[in-house]
Amino acid sequence: AQPTPAEAATGIPAGVFCAQDYEALAAKALAGATMAYIAGGAGRDQTLDANRAAFGQWSIWPRLLRDVGAGHTRLSLGGPALAHPLLLAPVAFQTLVHPRGEIETARAAHATETCMLASTLSSFRLEDIASAGGPTRWFQLYFQPSRDATLALVRRAEAAGYGALVVTLDAPIQPASLRALRAGFRMPADCVPANLAGLPAAPATAEPGDSRIFQGMMRTAPGWDDFDWLRAQTRLPVWVKGVMHPDDAAQFVQRGAAGLVVSNHGGRSLDGAPASLRALPAVRARVGKGTPVLFDGGIRCGEDVFKAMALGADAVLIGRLQVYALAVAGALGVAHMLKLLREELEACMALAGCATLADIGPDCLLPKPANA
Ligand code: FNR
Known about the structure:
The protein is an alpha/beta fold. The chain has helices at about 5-10, 20-30, 30-40, 45-55, 100-110, 125-130, 145-160, 180, 210-215, 225-235, 245-255, 275-285, 300-310, 320-350, and strands at about 60, 85-90, 115-120, 135-140, 165-170, 240-245, 260, 295, 315-320, 365. It comes from Variovorax dokdonensis.
């Protein structure tokens, strides 16, 4: 499609009518192997597919004549107020899809009042991402093989003004994606984690006869004591990303987590794990209203955001849509994608009779009968 004059003037790519349209454009813009790496899940994509399918099991119940004239999407997750509940999920190595990677994403987050979660494995240093972006940013932390190295990252995030740490615990090892392997994907040599320059790499080799997994890759994986240690090192709120089981959720809350992210890493960790949307109600039920719960996995439109909020999320993280928009149009693409997604959510709220996020609850949904 030719861009309209308005699109040509703004630089918005032609053919984008909804946030998900960036996916098809990214598939054209990126090399096939790169697209396979981003779009794919771990193993056979069972959990990846389940994440999407779970949204299809719910309908949204329209309501009539409700006054939403004072409607808004504001919320607070413990820190400064947020304008809307769409946060940018941590995504590693963004120079894979755009030469200025996370710098562009940070600019988009600023322009759209979005909280960005910068990955430990970013292509740019967390300090550079902070200076490129707005005031609302969190740092996604991966435990490093030594506590000294982990603490160095924490101190840098504090100094750079990150408002929270989000420690991702669901991927101490990441099984390969068969889709990416079969497409011949290799991480380019210049895609390196800028934050970890100079830090020692994990000593992952096992002795002969040992398991490559248990005694190898998992040797430096964190445990509960590391979580307690981390909490004691910082005054920043510590969130946990990757929570799927209500018993884990309860443990983290008891040990002082500021909030939880129900997530299965976008289907990129345990292949065979349930859809994150299925895990969400049980986690919410266990931790009650007092603990903020975020959600990610499979969100592609505003109606998906609404369903996640109805099933217990306070806000959501956007993963792949962010990467696709970045690949197609840099900061402008990410900002445009977020604007479209936010408008889809607002339209959905209005037609479901919800003036505020607090009005979105389980009674806004109807389960779909099988085959309906
Ligand atoms: C991720 N994700 C991720 N999570 C994390 O905690 N740290 C990271 O560095 C990364 N890196 C990363 C790279 C790529 C290419 C993808 C697709 C995902 C997981 C991410 O934060 C989020 O949980 C999922 O992407 C959410 O699912 P959707 O929105 O992609 O379906």
